[in-house]
Structures
1.
Amino acid sequence: MTPILSARSASVGYAGTPVVHDFALDVSPGEVVTVLGANGAGKTTALLGLAGALPLLGGTVEFAGAPLSSLARNARRGLGLLTDDRAIFRELTVLENLRLGTGEPELALGTFPALRRLTGRKAGLLSGGEQQMLGLGRVIAARPRLLLADELSLGLAPMIVTALLAAVRQLADEGAGVVLVEQHVRLVLEIADRAVVLRRGRIAFTSGARDLRHDEQRLAGAYLHDPGPIQQGVSQ
């Protein structure tokens, strides 16, 4: 199957200084890949580079068979980016948020029924979990070919995180490619197909998600720099 996203020797950083080096990744339609790593490993920087939100300092990234372009142009071609600020318009209502662009609100409301009773409420008045459902719902409503999401679970209760990750898995099962940066290691490995572990801006290893779930020692050693048990609260 032809990858929807393909990165080769990609370097990404800020002000001309690389933070992520020689990043390589293929993501196929219907596949969920999670990018894991300790604080400062470069996960968010890698994700922004894959989205076109940060310029490449080396290497190549292709989306849907063509070289990566600007974030706005990538979005028009079917790339959905959800950053850790939840990407909502706080002064607009839930329904107004869902109607922005070319999205189909019913897709979001069908995925997150809890939003139906909140359609007239301003997004800024929602709880953190409701805001994250709205942010992800906006992306889902646009029927993305590729979803890149950063820290869906940040600050949220595990029950909400489980619902968000289930929606991501459903999106992939319907044919989208997905790349997730996530702090809830065990939960994301339950719905992911593969994992990429970053260490100091470089790929330490890649693994099938199922294999990694059963290899805590390997994950702890490369991900947490600690031979102890896997923790769930590591960001960026």
Note: The longest strand covers residues 17-27.
2.
Amino acid sequence: MPNFLTDGPAKAKITLVLAHGAGVAMDSPFMTAIAQGVAVNGVKVVRFEFPYMERRRANGKGGAPDQERILLQAWRDTIAELGGSTGLVIGGKSLGGRIASIVADEAEVRGLVCLGYPFHPPGKPTGNRTKHLEFLHTPALILQGTRDPFGSPGDVKRYRLSPKIRVEWIEDGDHSFRPRASSGRNEADNLSLAITLVKDFIALL
């Protein structure tokens, strides 16, 4: 059975389920800020970890992410554990959001939220991870920093994306939405904007 971190009302109409990125756990400052910020708005937010991150936590050592088939099954198991697709919006940070986007249509969830989508490896804009996004049927929100090395505005405009996908840009944000001091913005500003965009997206589902 997956281990969960839960914020927000127990009997909320919608539950947002978030998975972490490749290198950070579900209780990282970024994941915690997003989860708690969205939960304040009456949404139940559940976080979980992939098996490799659970192993890291247990043994205190590193280790590469699991094979994609294992990551996909972790999402399927989590969705089933939470009662199936009814009322679920799934997504997450980087890797977590990408894997969620692959299972979203299959699971018939209510929506998809990707926080910093890894459109391509840094420095390799043609090695994209977007083929399945061309045909996505699930309503989706992708939040992306304008300085994200995994997908800048110039990169993303070249990709064909389903009309079900809305991309919103976080000004001067990196892959975790952090801006440069010279931009006049700060991390709290950008996280607050991200939380508002997620809240507004869920409210329309």
Note: The longest helix spans residues 187-203.
